[in-house]
Amino acid sequence: MHFSAVALVAAVALASSAQAVDYPFKPNGPCVSKCLNDAGKSMYSKFTDDPNSPYFFESLSYAHERGTQKYTDYMTKSGMCLATANCPKSEIDIYQNQYAEKSAWYQKNKPKKGKASSKRA
Fold this sequence. Notes:
0% strand, globular
């Protein structure tokens, strides 16, 4: 019995580490993050900025799948919040300076359509 419990714990740890994502960006800061998360959660209840969440790539798609309705709606909602929340300039600068790189990272690392795999970079 003890062996099977140890095996189960090891399997869970291995599965958890396989889902870890190397997301090499600075945090946006609390004000900007609140706007982005509030906009996302208003559209998708599992929206997250946690790179280790199974919902991370779906959440990123709202900000980086240009030409979709969800992109337009998300950018409108988050932009309206950013325009009225009086976030510190330093936070806005971090967000703006990293946006293009985050978008490129997302396009390179997002799960491929039609594959059952949840492989991440």
